[in-house]
Specification:
The protein is α+β, with helices and mostly antiparallel strands. The protein contains 2 helices and 2 strands; from the N terminus they run αββα.
Amino acid sequence: MVKQYKGHYPYKEEHITLNAPASIGVYYCGAVLSNGNLLPHYVGKGAGERGVWGRLLDHIRQELNLEGVEIKRFQPKYNIQRK
């Protein structure tokens, strides 16, 4: 079944929670152009129990946590505080 496009929504947790379906589906992340069209940068699919809603929340939470994870994983020398 193909549903009509709904959007555009800001890429923020509160908008995902209110608008994204918990069913399987395809989503687009991109920039809104001056003419109102969407320029997709990423296309993804949400499936499983949490559908599109869960997948988008996973994306946004990973981004919020990414800096700390990357610092821990790579342990860059320039990130050490010296006394």
